[in-house]
Amino acid sequence: MPNMPLVYCERNNSSPLIWVLRKMFFHIVLERNMQLHPRHFGRDLREKLVSKLMKDVEGTCSGRHGFVVAITGIENVGKGLIRDGTGFVTFPVKYQCVVFRPFKGEILEAVVSMVNKMGFFAEAGPVQIFVSNHLIPDDMEFQSGDMPNYTTSDGSVKIQKDSEVRLKIIGTRVDATEIFCIGTIKDDFLGVISDPGIVNMKSCMY
User: Fold this and answer.
1) Residue of 169, 158, 168, 137 whose CA lies nearest to 200
2) What pTM value is reported for the model?
3) For the chain: N or C, fewer Cβ within 10 A?
């Protein structure tokens, strides 16, 4: 079964005429050898295998395939092989799953996790993205203090911890167990979506 991209569109709040197409989710088939202790052998052996598979695999990252979001089905459970001296049995399990892998040029909405003079880090689900200060609009300057931030000269826009931003992936680094991205907000319709400072101020007024 080939990798099938799960494509969906999301309306861009900054411009009703622009739709953002995402192809970061894929439905693929993978295989994994699962080991079970003899105490799990019985009528519910398959259920035990599936439960262990979900616990071991969901939420993990493979540099080749991406982040495993969810297991959607079991295609096949092969014959078990007894491991000498342990009693454990290894079963080859072929399963379907949804994986998340960002690519260069994708648009993401992320939450800022840290801000410093070099730029800021943001998280979109399991993915961490770094936006360098060179990829932040020129009219935003770094402000140090208890809550480091990037603020426009008129103070109308601020990027700080917990701010929601829309950014564009311009590069990725893939390791065996990790995917790290470089992003930019220096483009049309990118930047701050919501400022936690403004939200907190509004809540205090009521």
Assistant:
1) 158
2) 0.71
3) C
